[in-house]
Amino acid sequence: MYIVVAKYLIPEGYAALTVFPFVVLRESESQQNLVLMQHEQIHIRQQLEMLVIAFFLWYFAEYLFGLIRFGNHNLAYRNISFEKKLTRMRKTRNF
Fold first, then answer.
1. What distance separates the 2 farthest-apart alpha carbons in the chain?
2. pLDDT per residue over 9-63, tens digit each?
């Protein structure tokens, strides 16, 4: 995993974006946020398991479906199965 800090590549309201093998952070201080870094490490693993391209096709298909369904970017993002799984993991495993 390679960490890159690039404030203007990350949409407003988000801290990071992961595209194997890179984690792009909005702020360099985010490297100290263990919950965020674990979240992004899991996205790296998910991308590897799905051979990267399949992950992004699935991820964006779910996002677009959610955007049509909810008409709201934040709700569409929160309802992507990969994000929902990480939210459940965070609540149950205290990572």
1. 36
2. 998 889 999 999 999 999 999 999 999 999 999 999 999 999 999 999 999 999 9
Residue whose pair of structure tokens reads 């990480």 in the numeric block: 86
Backbone angles phi, psi at 82, to 5 degrees: -65, -40
pLDDT, one tens digit per residue, over 69-81 is: 999 999 999 999 9
Q: Which residues contact 4 (CB under 8 A, 6 or more apart)?
A: 22, 23, 24, 25
pLDDT surpassing 70 at residue 94 = no
Interacting residues of 44 by C-beta distance below 8 A, sequence separation 6+: 1, 18, 20, 21, 23
Domain residue spans of the chain: 2-93
The residue assigned the tokens 């990350």 is 10
Cα separation, 95 vs 35, in Å, equals 6
